[in-house]
Write a structure and sequence with these properties.
single chain, globular
Length: 378
């Protein structure tokens, strides 16, 4: 039996999007190497070697995501959601604790962070729901009940870990997808009114934050109040970024980094390491790469063949965008420190592989935008 292969799939493979992602990953791996570099030791950087290994696995995951028709994901959306939720439920039972948070599940020498996988599963299931709930007049308020019910369980489980940053990013991603899905004017008015009504309740919500979370918010407003405690992270990060100047101090010559003044320098504050060594110019180059990746991705969203593909691609892109915005904001002192890594750049296997797999889905949507096949009626 002869298998027919559509060559247009190769022609529409978005190599630019892939190269932009790989460029960010390459810069990140170099920065991870620098963050783990010890001038008094001859050992190689374990973190950088692992990051390179995970990046290789991520490329395979991205290629796997472009190897099938993304529209088939509609059939398995709730299965993916159920698996992601099951892993989150398993975290309190068999998860490992690090820095006071239980977020990972160990599998031998490896560990996975289920919250990262859950975000992708939630994007898929919401893309399916909004695709099937589209109305000419826009979404009614009742149409948002199911997305809220789908979002609350994973967000609640992530907050229990506790991981306020990931929970916040998840909510932002869901909100972004709601905006693209298109609420009706009446729904918009109700949502805006509900948002304003929350303002008087903020003191009550703040009283239920954990002490360290409340301390982070207070030191965000005035980090100098606790320069050796809760404000230390932000102060050292801003010193590192500022000391980089225009051209930076050079690779492996960042003093804040090499003297280990920066906390979590290979994960949450990797941007500070990079900016100290490569300066304002390097920071602009990195941010430009992110902007180019976003713009290229939005082109894919705009020319997607159908609504499910557009929502799927937009959800993945919004996850990357909000992570980047929050991380850059917290490392520069413009947002509270909430423990969010820089996508494709910070050290971390689960995050990197999941993000690369997600971008593979965006490329998948672009490859099949010309398809004349009937959309499966699941």
């Amino acid at each position: 039996m002869r298998v027919q292969f559509d060559r247009r799939l190769i022609y529409h493979f978005d190599g630019v999007l892939m190269l932009l992602m790989l460029a960010i990953i390459a810069l990140g791996t170099v920065s991870v190497y620098s963050a783990d570099f010890d001038p008094n030791s001859s050992r190689a950087s374990i973190f950088a070697a692992r990051q390179a290994m995970w990046a290789t696995m991520g490329v395979l995951a991205a290629l796997a995501m472009v190897s099938f028709d993304y529209r088939k994901l509609e059939r398995y959306a709730y299965v993916a959601y159920g698996l992601g939720l099951s892993l989150l439920l398993a975290v309190p039972l068999i998860g490992s604790t690090s820095n006071g948070s239980k977020r990972w599940i160990g599998f031998g020498a490896f560990s996975v962070q289920p919250s990262e996988m859950m975000k992708l599963a939630l994007i898929i299931v919401l893309a399916r729901y909004f695709h099937r709930s589209m109305r000419p007049e826009g979404l009614r308020l009742r149409d948002l009940v199911v997305p809220v019910l789908l979002t609350l369980p994973p967000v609640g489980l992530i907050l229990v870990q506790p991981d306020l940053g990931t929970a916040g990013v998840t909510c932002f991603v869901v909100a972004s997808m709601v905006v693209l899905a298109g609420p009706s004017p009446r729904t918009w008015a109700i949502l805006c009114g509900a948002a304003l009504s929350v303002v008087p309740a903020l003191p009550y919500l703040a009283s239920h934050l954990k002490p360290y979370q409340l301390k982070r918010i207070e030191t965000f407003l005035s980090p100098e109040l606790d320069p050796l405690g809760a404000g230390y992270h932000v102060i050292q990060s801003k010193i590192a970024i500022g000391s980089g100047g225009f051209y930076g101090k050079g690779f492996l010559h960042g003093t804040q980094n090499q003297l280990h003044f920066l906390p979590e320098q290979h994960t949450d504050f990797i941007f500070s390491v990079f900016s100290e060594e490569w300066g304002f110019v390097g920071a602009i180059v990195l941010i430009t790469l992110y902007l180019a990746l976003m713009m290229r991705g939005l082109v894919v969203v705009g020319r997607a063949k159908e609504r499910f593909g557009a929502l799927l691609a937009f959800g993945v892109l919004s996850n990357i965008l909000w992570q980047a915005v929050i991380n850059l904001g917290m490392t520069t002192g413009m947002l509270p420190v909430v423990g969010i890594t820089l996508p494709f750049f910070s050290y971390g296997g689960s995050s990197l592989i999941t993000l690369m797999a997600g971008l593979g889905l965006v490329i998948n949507v672009n490859m099949r935008r010309f398809s004349k096949d009937r959309i499966p009626n699941f």
